[in-house]
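User: Could you check the structure of this?
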Amino acid sequence: MKIGFDLISDLYLSPSDPFSWEGKATSLYCLIAGNVSYDLRTIGNTLKHLSKFYQGVFYTTGSLEFQEATDIPNRIYELSLLCKRVGNVVLLQQQVVIIDGIAILGCNGWSGNTAPTDGATEGKIEVGRHDDLVYLKTSIEKLQKHNDVTKILLMTNSVPSKELYFGEVPKIVKYRPELALTHMLDLDSEAKISHWAYGTYEKSVDTNINGVHYITNPSFDKNPYWAKRIEVEV
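Assistant: Sure, the predicted C-alpha cells are below.
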C-alpha cells in the first residue's frame, strides 16, 4: 500500500498576496516545510484554506515565521493555537503523527537554513536548535522499537546537510557541519527513515542518497506552482 503526501514550502506570502489551492491537491495529506509567512493572520488563513482540500495538513515552521518574533517559544505557542483552531492541521513541534504505519516527524531544525534578519537573537536560536535536535533524537530512538511503525518520514525547514545544497550554500547561511541534521540517521538502526522532505533550498530536489529519499518543492514565487507528490510504501 502506498500513502501519498503533497509537499509544499517557502510560499513567502505577504498579507496582500492572493493564494488559492483550488484543484491542486493530489493526495489525502499535505506537508508544509515552513516559510509560509511572517504574518500570523496570513499563516492562519493559509492553513485554514489548505485544510479544505486535505484530510490532514502537517506543518513545520521556517525561519520566516519568526522574522518579527522576539521569542521563539511564544511564537510556537501562537502557531500551535492557530493550528488547533483549524482542526485537521497539526504543527509538528514536539509531537509525532502516525498514519498507517508511517511516523511523521517535523521541526524547524535551525541548521542550514536562513536565520531571521531581525527578532530572535542567535542565543535564542541556539536554544531552539537544541530543542529540535533533542526532539528528533528522542523520537527516532523510540520509533525504532515501535512495532506499528515501519517507515519514518522526516520533514525539516532546515537543509539536512551542506551536501544537499549541491554546492550552492548561500553566503547568509552559517552552516555548521557538526550540527548537520543528517547525523540523526545514525540513530536509525532499523532503517525506518525512508523520506526526508525539507525547505529553504530554492531549487527542486528529488534524489536518493544511501537509501533515503530527499525531496524539496519550494515556491519562491513560482507561477504556476504545484504540489510535489510523495509516495511512501508500507
